[in-house]
Amino acid sequence: MPPRENPHSPSSSQPPPLPPEGGRSSLVLGVLIVAAILAAAIGYSVLSRMKAEASLKKTTLAEATPTFNIVHPSPVVSSGEITLPGSAQAYMDTAIYARTNGYLKSFKVDIGAHVKQGDLLAEIETPEVDQQLEQARADLKNAQANLSLAQLTDARSEDLFKKKTISPQERDQARTDLAAKRALVDSGEANVRRLEQLRAFEKVVAPFDGVVTARSTDVGALIQASSTGGAKELFHLADNHILRVYFSVPEIYASSVKHNEEVAIAFDAFPGEKFTGKLIRDSASLDPLSHTLNVEADVENPAGRLLPGGYATVHLNIPGTPGAVTIPANTLLFRSEGPRVGVIRDGHVALVPIEIGHDFGNTLEVLSGLKAEDAVVLDPPDSLTDGETARGQEAPPKTAATPAKK
Known about the structure:
This protein has three helices and 22 strands. By secondary structure, it is α+β, with helices and mostly antiparallel strands.
């Protein structure tokens, strides 16, 4: 058993030795580094949480803000265009009637025939007129014979009166009889000329160059003069070297009609092709029922490709208004105060009053209230209110604003 140390010995009462000075500094530095790391970790955690909360708040706010498609008004830099329905008619179109009674002897043309002015169309037999003409000529000869006798009588009575063989009354009677006989001759000559003219109407001729569009008679048919009741047309003749296209212009565009201005005209018979017409005349007054202006445009048709009676579409140019812009029709809002459009400015909606000019169908002309840089809301909901928060995004090209047709 080893000997027990004496607690009161000098060696047991001394304190333990202290670590060197450099070791103590390293320990303090390590403690500080650990504390800094812990503080950085805590700070990063706090900042990350704050950033996440801010992002969540921003995302929530963004999702709560409605987003609308927007378009920008297009400046009206040139004239617009409207399309109007029209009907094509021949330059001259007439029904041809007989001017004398009889029977149709023959016809020389049929439908589709091209004729010149004065060409023979048909011949009519007029036996009654022929007999009346013979009788009138005989009556005229009788009247002329009586006139010759009256002239001799008048000359003799004048000589006898100078010799004071007859009285003034007898001389005046001779003069009066001569005047009456002369009047009978004049009447007979007029009657003969009338009947000769009726017989000349046996030949039906074309009044102008054109195309026979209808034939309403046949050989042997009873012909009655157009001056009598029940007369029926013999032919229908149309001159279509120029077509008259008639169309109605709404009152709002009536001032845009300029005489001698050229317009593009399309016909259903020639899809994809446009013909040039010239504005010739208009009615100079509005129809009281439709409030439209009746306008005529002439189209040259030398080859006869275009047929009268066809349906036409007229493309009428509408002059633009300086400073005006166009917007799609689906941007318009109707309010009790008048037409409005929604414009996004500084993240808020402003309901802007506008003045509408021409209506082009898919687009509208706006005379005042908008500028080209405004962001106009497309397809705005009826619940859109002034001042509400909103965001805008450019609309796809297919729904973007388009300028008026040129």
